[in-house]
Specification:
264 residues; Ferritin
């Protein structure tokens, strides 16, 4: 049975909530994948260059799979969903749209994001909507490498020198508010409990994420210091974004916009 035909998703409000939730994850994956791809040719060494390029491809591929599920429910096509929407129509968290900065910020963001992604994929994988649970389990297996890679680099940078440690701490200060905003709810998210699409609510997911990341940060001497970083991040889940997303989309969609609907 196709996703659109499932009885659990026939109620319009529930269907819209599922669409919004899947879009938020897909948009996160797409935008972060593009940011990772910007390191191609510029990473600290050839191994990192290859690794970030590979991770970028996988994030964008995962976004594609999620957009396909959204298209099954909402109509349209995956490419149009990825490249044809205005910035205020995207539902990604602002953390993933911020510029890469230095290697330390990229690694801190990767570590925080991938642990958050693991938590939400586990919540989706434990749900009762089989096509979504199956997809989440597949993505979770592939995302595991990203988690390992980010944590290894985080530990390496935090323990390298005093200067390196200080720069990573500054990156954590800057990234933390945006990382917590990864768990900002989409419109209608509470309705996802009705069909059992997800079994863990946003507040519990946030706590699970904190329980996963804080021991690692503590182990390498990094601390979450409230008030030392940026102001609370805009709510990207409701279309509030930084100016960086507009610039990113102009670059990312330029080829698609040159001939919309073309088969590449």
């Amino acid at each position: 049975m196709t996703l659109a035909a499932l009885p659990a998703l026939q109620a319009p409000a529930v269907r819209e909530a599922v669409i919004a939730y899947l879009l938020s994850i897909a948009d996160d994956e797409l935008i972060l994948g593009h940011r990772h791809s910007e390191w191609t040719g510029f990473a600290p060494d050839i191994e990192s260059d290859v690794a970030l390029s590979s991770i970028a491809q996988e994030e964008i591929g995962h976004a594609r799979l999620l957009y396909e599920r959204v298209a099954q429910l909402a109509g349209g096509d995956p490419d149009g969903l990825a490249y044809g929407r205005a910035p205020d129509a995207l539902r990604n968290a602002v953390l993933v749209e911020w510029p890469n900065g230095d290697w330390g910020f990229t690694i801190v963001r990767m570590f925080l994001y991938d642990r958050a992604d693991a938590v939400r994929l586990e919540a989706l994988a434990g749900g009762l909507v089989a096509p979504l649970a199956d997809l989440a389990r597949t993505l979770r297996r592939e995302e595991r490498y990203h988690e390992i890679y980010g944590e290894q680099w985080l530990r390496r940078l935090a323990r390298a020198t005093d200067d390196s440690h200080g720069r990573v701490q500054a990156a954590l200060d800057a990234a933390w508010p945006g990382a917590e905003a990864l768990f900002a709810p989409v419109d209608g998210q509470d309705m996802l409990k009705e069909p059992g699409a997800i079994r863990v609510d946003g507040g519990a997911q946030l706590q699970r994420w904190r329980d996963a990341v804080l021991p690692v940060l503590d182990d390498v001497g990094l601390a979450v210091r409230p008030g030392s970083g940026q102001e609370p991040a805009p709510d990207g889940r409701r279309g509030a974004h930084s100016e960086h997303l507009t610039v990113l989309l102009e670059e990312m969609t330029s080829v698609w916009r040159s001939e919309p609907g073309a088969r590449w």
